[in-house]
Amino acid sequence: MKLAVVVLALAMTGCASVADIEHTPPTMSVMSGKNPQEYTECFIARIGDSRKPPQIEAHHEGMRIIVPQKFTSETPTAIVDVEKRSGGSSIKLFESGGNNPLRPKDIQHAVTACISGE
Q1: Cα 98 off chain centre by
Q2: Model pLDDT, residue 99
Q3: pLDDT along the chain (118 residues), means of 10
């Protein structure tokens, strides 16, 4: 039964492109005292335990982190936009299937863990 739920959750997320994901409402919108480079380094270290390395791009006055799905590195599942603000960064998380309660929470946990000076 648990396997069926996992398979159903994966099927519901489908394949999304970066453009599809960035046009969804943000799942999280937070601020951090870290600059974009520090925040990005923290996030990559946190997410590295559960996923393949994300793609990092310069974006406006910050960084864009494109997080791959758990089992493939070709298809993105989330985008983390980290923008420079006075005294730190603003962070927005966009997820494919963001309204799916069965989606993995590792990305949200990494975003949250890197907000403060940990």
Answers
A1: 11
A2: 63
A3: 48 66 89 95 91 90 92 85 94 82 82 81
| Bridge partners, residue 59, by sequence | 62
Residue 88 placed within a domain: yes
Q: Has residue 118 been placed in a domain?
A: no
> What residues contact 58, with CB distance under 8 A and at least 6 apart?
64
What are the strands, taking DSSP E only, across 1-118?
28-32, 55-59, 62-68, 76-85, 88-95
- Which region, left, alpha or beta, applies to residue 58 given φ > 0 means left and ψ of -120 to 50 means alpha? beta
Domain that holds residue 44: 2-113
Number of domains in the chain: 1
